[in-house]
Amino acid sequence: MVRTRIAPSPTGADVHVGSVATALMNYAWAKKNKGQFVIRIEDTDRTRIVEGGEAQMLSTLKRIGLIADESPEVGGPYAPYRQSERLNIYKKYAEELVVKGKAYYCICTQERLAKMRSEQQAKKQVPKYDRLCLAHQKEIISKIKSEGVRHVIRLLIPEGQIKFNDAVRGEIIIDAKNIDDQVILKSDGFPTYHLGVVVDDHLMKITHIIRGEEWLPSTPKHVILYQAFGWDLPTFVHISLLRNPDKSKLSKRKNPVWTSYYLDQGILPEALLNYLALMGWSHPEGKDIFSLDEYIKVFDIKDIQTSSPIFDPVKLEWMNGMYIRKYPVLSIKYKVLEFYKDKKLDEKLVEKTIPLIQDRIKKLSDYLTLCEFFFKTPKKYEVDLSNKKEFFEKVYSELEKVTDWKALVIGESLINLAKKLEIKNSQFFMDIRLVITGKKISPPLNESMEILGKEECLKRLTRIQFFCIFSV
RNA sequence: GGUCCUAUCGUCUAGUGGUUAGGACGGCAGGUUCUCAUCCUGUAAACAUCGGUUCGAUUCCGAUUAGGAUCACCA
Fold this sequence. Notes:
Helices cover 45% and strands 9% of the residues. It contains 19 helices and nine strands.
């Protein structure tokens, strides 16, 4: 049985795209092996909790299609799935380690620790707890019992080498002398990440821990915890981190990182997943575009790349354009309507315009940029048309004669007029495009005019005579 | 600074002990075209450096360099 999980911490406003990339692999590996994909909320740092962050994260994950088999929302056999609701469990396990002599109480103040750390750093030593409290456990325990002194529980790091295997990086060996006696239970009774993650992954029977490589340096601590408890190790898979163009870890200071940001500009969830799948992994047949189902079929942990890719929004947009182009018109219509649901666009009209712009937009948000003129007459023109009055009068009388208002007929009639007036097609159509759409860039003109209707087009041709340029 | 991870076109990547080192995005140049796109054709562009192993290394090993991550009562 394969069980994977993601363990987001609600310390941000939304899901980071890097987390989606990680979630995707976890999801795919679970589904591929007919296992379960779990979401567990790690909300043990109550000083950093962002109001509404958890709800937003869970909602975005659903929006993007990574549906959990077990989560705080849907529950499951190992509930609760929110660490703040499992405090008694961590306390029990932490105390068990103390009894076993694998952990110890510490009542050192933050001030002492800070002072010690800065002194060590000044001497260019590795900052480490000096184990002052380890020597006085008996007194400390009685002090805690009688006076209720604030205390933490620290993991006692054994001497020697820590070895573990990473599924994509192979064997990793770290000398224990480089590891600090990590606090595992904080003075507020909450566990630190290290205890919480090990206890929960064990209790929830997680088989594969697929997470960002930022966790690689603390994995030895987790290994020590597993060994202290006498538990079997899961398979560790540390995947590379997404980066900014300057190669630093992808961060919100330098790039948009929230998943909703991309979704809200009309990047389709399936395109985002497809793009993210290609970060640190490639399709065995070299395909760029593939569905989530196909990804699940061909994905394998052993093919995961170890170097860190740069997140490139340009290629993401290209890919999104590919998705938009391959969907049926009706499907795009519904996506556009949903995307602009606040604007309450006319459904029939949207449907007619889709074929004109499907090859022209990369994101759903490009739709109105191109098509707004279908819904309201342009308020201004990108080019000064004030000296073209006569020209538009001629176009007007030509088009007035068209009885069968179809793109083809309109086109023929206009071409004839252009010939007659001896105006280059490009110039001729550009002026008409401007007066009809207001813009230099638009969907195909004849087809647009057909959709707009004869009456409206004629109205727009005359409008130039009554309104000032560049204004209403 | 200590520890750990990483290194193929600008970017995402494929690949092999002997290849003209392949593809995609992006770029550039053409074609199609009433604009913009789409589509099509072509083109420039990479094995970080130095040693070693070997008949032969981009590929295996080591060092160097560079980049990254991490060193909290944060995750």
